[in-house]
Amino acid sequence: MSVKGDIIVLDDDDLVCVYWERRCQRSRRSIRTFRCQRDLFSALPKIKNSATLFIDKNLDGKSSGLRITRQLFIAGFKNLYVSTAENPNAQPHLSWIKGFIGKIPPDWLFSDSITAPLSMDERQKLLSQMSMHQLEQYKIRMEHFLNVVHGMDAGTFAGPDLNGFNLPELVINAWERGITMCLSDEQIKAATDHAWRSS
């Protein structure tokens, strides 16, 4: 029998785990949290490889989340993220993980927030927080996004396969919001795939 939870969180902070559980419950997402590496690894045979795992970078100040994600990758898990109280954008690039996030659940996991239309106030706030490099990347990604949305370019993009269909509004919202939040291509793809399934 499989462990319930398409979202798996390993964090030694009870408050962090409770917050994740409540956020997932509110969005009707299945989650399983673990407070220690031993418990997670004991449950691994029952966890589907398709699960998305969020691993705390520093467990008890002893265990390295980076080392744990490497072991999980070798065990066949590919949807791996490292959560950290440090700046997620200042972390090293690691080929076996999809990215770093903060300690709270990212909006792109939940269709109820990532697929909401982006207001002008939200857009201005997010733009004001971008570095010059992020602004340059934003302009490039938005130009490609607009070309796809307006049917000018159906090439590769961080989202579901178009298959000749018009993009649903939820997918467009998730994609635009993901770009404006400076999410990685992998995170935007996860968000738009989820939005596509919810459409």
Low-confidence stretches: 154-164
SSE order, one letter for each helix or strand: EHEHEEEHEEHHHHH
Largest beta-sheet characterization = 5 strands, parallel
Assigned CATH superfamily of the largest domain: Response regulator
User: What would CATH call the architecture of the largest domain?
Assistant: 3-Layer(aba) Sandwich
Mean pLDDT: 81
Strand order of the largest sheet: 2-1-3-6-7
Q: Helical residue percent?
A: 40-55%
CATH class of the largest domain: Alpha Beta
Count of individual helical segments: 8
Sum this structure up briefly.
This protein is α/β, with parallel strands linked by helices. 44% of the residues lie in helices and 13% in strands. The strands form two sheets. A five-stranded parallel sheet has the order 2-1-3-6-7, with helices on both faces. A two-stranded antiparallel sheet has the order 4-5.
Describe this structure in words.
It is a single chain. The two termini are 30 Å apart. The chain folds into 2 domains: 7-105, Response regulator (Rossmann fold); 113-198, no CATH class. It contains 8 helices and 7 strands. The protein has a 5-stranded parallel β-sheet, sandwiched between helices. Strands 4-5 form a two-stranded antiparallel ribbon. The protein has 199 residues and is an alpha/beta fold. α7 (169-180) runs antiparallel to α8. The chain has helices spanning 14-26, 37-43, 65-74, 111-114, 120-128, 132-149, 169-180, 185-198; strands at residues 7-10, 31-34, 52-56, 58-59, 63-64, 79-83, 99-101. The model is unreliable at 154-164 (pLDDT under 50). The longest helix is centred in the C-terminal third of the chain and has 18 residues, at 132-149.
